[in-house]
Amino acid sequence: MKTDEISTLQNILDAGRIEFLEKGFRAASLRNIVKNAGVTTGAFYGYFSNKEALFAALVEKHAAEAMGKFVQTQDSFVALPKEEQPRHMGSTAGDYIHWLVDYAYDHFDAFKLILCCSEGTAYEDFVHSMVEIEVEGTYQFMDVMRELGNEVPEIDPQLMHMICSGMFNGMFESIIHGMSREQARQHVCKLKEFYQAGWSKLMGMDFG
């Protein structure tokens, strides 16, 4: 790609990012994006097929990285010998959460777009998708604990969804409300301790 083409593309990306952050995807104006990028509508369509394609160009790489790392973490945990899973449960979850906070703050605008501005795009269910994966993984872990001879009580699916949803939404509150990275790190540490204690209470096991 030639230098002037790279510059044009970057201008479109920058204008789109600003417009989406200010108005959200639905209300964002393609006319404004084109105008603020200093290009013609025809030039815009030389790079993107529509407004959603531009939004995806701004967030897809980072959404995929966060989700991919999350699934990889879940798979690595399941691959552990069953006897070792209780000991690693807290640290495995904690490592991913701390990684995610730093990654999200390294790409703050992209996650702000996903969390606050994505209604009407394929990314509006990003957090919900993570919650569903967490719910499934937690039920699998509970089954493993029962196989190991532990008395683990049943948890209603609605309650399970509420707990997992609260965890992920709480974790992303720092970005939604524009907290500093250091504030986010501190709050997430406390949030992790809170949920770890809660899971220990619900399951009657120590995950420290």
What is the secondary structure topology, with strand pairs?
Layout: H1 3-27, H2 30-37, H3 41-45, H4 51-79, H5 85-106, H6 108-116, H7 126-147, H8 157-176, H9 181-203
Helix pairs in contact: 1-2, 1-4, 1-6, 4-5, 4-6, 4-7, 5-6, 5-9, 7-8, 8-9
Count of strand segments: 0
Q: Indicate the mean pLDDT.
A: 93
What composes the largest sheet? none
Tell me the helix content.
over 70%
Amino- and carboxy-terminal Cα gap? 52 Å
Sequence of secondary-structure elements: HHHHHHHHH
- What's the alpha carbon Rg, rounded to whole Å? 21 Å
Global outline: elongated
Count of DSSP-assigned helices: 9
How many discrete domains? Answer: 2
β-strand amount: under 5%
Q: Structural class given helices, strands, pairing?
A: mainly alpha
Q: Spans of 5+ residues with little confidence (pLDDT < 50)?
A: none
Structure description:
With 208 residues, this protein is mainly alpha-helical. It has helices spanning 3-27, 30-37, 41-45, 51-79, 85-106, 108-116, 126-147, 157-176, 181-203. It folds into 2 domains: 1-48, Orthogonal Bundle (Arc Repressor Mutant, subunit A); 59-203. The protein has 9 helices and no strands. The radius of gyration is 21 Å and the shape is elongated. The termini are far apart. The mean pLDDT is 93.
Summarize the model shown.
It is built from nine helices and no strands. By secondary structure, it is mainly α. The mean pLDDT is 93.
